[in-house]
Design goal:
The complex is a heterodimer.
Chain A (H helix, E strand, L loop, with lengths): L2 E3 L4 E5 L4 E3 L2 E3 L5 E7 L6 E6 L5 E3 L5 E5 L4 E6 L8 E8 L7 E2 L3 E6 L1
Parallel strand pairs in A: 2-12
Antiparallel strand pairs in A: 1-4, 3-9, 5-6, 5-10, 7-8, 8-9, 10-11, 10-12
Chain B lengths: L2 E5 L2 E4 L5 E8 L5 E7 L5 E9 L2 E4 L6 E6 L2 E6 L8 E8 L4 E3 L3 E5 L1
Parallel strand pairs in B: 2-11
Antiparallel strand pairs in B: 1-3, 3-8, 4-5, 4-9, 5-6, 7-8, 9-10, 9-11
Classes of the chains: A mainly beta, B mainly beta.
Chain lengths: 113, 110
């Protein structure tokens, strides 16, 4: 079945430590890939997206993601986490160019002092 | 610039009451429009999408309906709310280059 998987429901990191959030997808073709962040009670903010080309994508707030076709993955990374990064992170795929986004269940990030 | 407006931000409604949530987009024409619902502890579920005026596709059979009376207006409705309709409702749009989300409506059915 077609799906987006975020294996980690919760992740806790210390401020200043590096971060990697995992995302795997299961679709026949390479979809468009997105990472969104959601602060409590807020809408979704786009961090970055991958359509084609360079597999390492730079986004806002110092985030980057790498598309690995062989692993069907699109992991989100940040070299040094700030307390303000605490939020819910969603990976999403668009398999048909504007049809709709399918979301993973999200990873909740907690940042400790 | 393109913007998306969604209201109200918060809504508390009794079971059996009607519902109307509105979403409007500015600065673009003929966008694809979407309604998503986010239940507590879950991801985002696509409810409806629309590729044009009067064109609505439903992804999940439920107590809700959607309408698109104008190009940049998308409305989510219910005739009688259920407790299970509680959640965070998000409107979104795209013209092909990515998806932009509204700020959401927190609906609590009591």
């Amino acid at each position: 079945a077609q799906s987006v998987t975020q294996p980690d429901i919760h992740i806790t990191v210390s401020e200043g430590a590096s971060l990697e959030l995992r995302c795997n997808y299961s679709y026949g073709a390479t979809p468009y890939l997105f990472w969104y962040v959601q602060s409590p009670g807020q809408g979704l903010q786009l961090l970055l997206k991958y359509f084609s080309g360079d597999t390492l994508v730079q986004g806002i707030k110092g985030f980057e993601a790498e598309f690995k076709r062989s692993q069907s993955s699109f992991n989100l990374r940040k070299p040094s986490v700030h307390w303000s990064d605490a939020a819910e992170y969603f990976c999403a795929v668009d398999v048909n160019s504007g049809y709709a986004l399918n979301f993973g269940k999200g990873t909740s990030l907690l940042v400790t002092p | 610039s393109q913007t998306i407006h969604q209201w109200p931000a918060t809504l508390v409604q009794p079971v059996g009451s009607p519902l109307s949530l509105e979403c409007t987009v500015e600065g673009t024409s003929n966008p694809n429009l979407y309604w998503y619902r986010q239940a507590a502890g879950r991801g985002l579920q696509l409810l409806f999408y629309s590729v044009g005026i009067g064109q609505i596709s439903s992804e999940v059979p439920q107590n809700l309906s959607a309408s698109r009376p104008q190009d940049r207006q998308f409305i989510l409705s219910s005739k009688k709310l259920l407790l299970s309709d509680s959640g965070f409702y998000l409107c979104a749009w795209t013209s092909g280059a990515g998806y932009t989300f509204g700020s959401g409506t927190r609906l609590t059915v009591v």
